[in-house]
Protein: Cyclochlorotine biosynthesis protein O
Amino acid sequence: MFTLPGKKLEQDRARRWGDYHRISEPRSKREGDTGDGHGPDSSDETSYGLRYWLRIHAVGVLVAINILLSATLLLVCITRGTGAISSCQEQDSDGGVHLIGQAQIPVTMESFRFQTGVRKQYTAFFGPRNATTDAAWDSILNAGLIRITKAQADSLSAPTTWSRHDPSMYVGIVEVFHQLHCLGHLRTLIYAADPTAERMKNPGHADHCIEYLRQTLTCLADVEIAPIGWDSRLQAYGIRDDTVRQCRSFGKIHEWVLDPVRHESEDI
Structure:
């Protein structure tokens, strides 16, 4: 039978539309369920609908789960303070105190203004050796060694010896006091009447200290920016002023190390 082109196009559209609705219908409807209880039951229809929904939305569900897991992991990392930080092993404690290092030393932060002499402001440590400066240096070079537990000793990057006062404990030195010890040794050499003779008392000590301090500075790599000025007399740039910094409270760390509970010896 001859069919007009327009009529045939309408029939094709109707057939495709009907097929689309048939595919979209639940399986029970497509298989002739009349609702009289003789077709597939409602549980089959529900099961098919669930599988059909999951198949359509599977990718979206997986993406949502991945985002949820990533957000959870990020929250845990932020809460625990994990990150590159660092070999410092820093953990939050109460009252703004941080427990840092293998010995979990309680550390607080404080605002500190540097006084390095560029503005004619001097500390008791500043300048050549005399009774005042020597007393100041001696007051921070008395920390020496502390006792640590076996678990703390095992966490170090190299073996450490045991305490001669308590064989159940081990000994170590908090690095800042090792650094101050080296700086104090170099100060002694600089201001010695005969630096060469002073150095020969312990050959290699000064070289060790210089290299140790160099590596410490590059390891910590301070990235704060210092202000610079122009010296018109010298026609050169120079440090312009001392800065105010947020620093770890050295005094409290010093007190913690000197506590008889853990202080082993002033020797190093």
User: Anything to note?
Assistant: Confidence is low (pLDDT under 50) at residues 1-5, 19-40, 71-93. Residues 42-80 form the longest helix (39 residues).
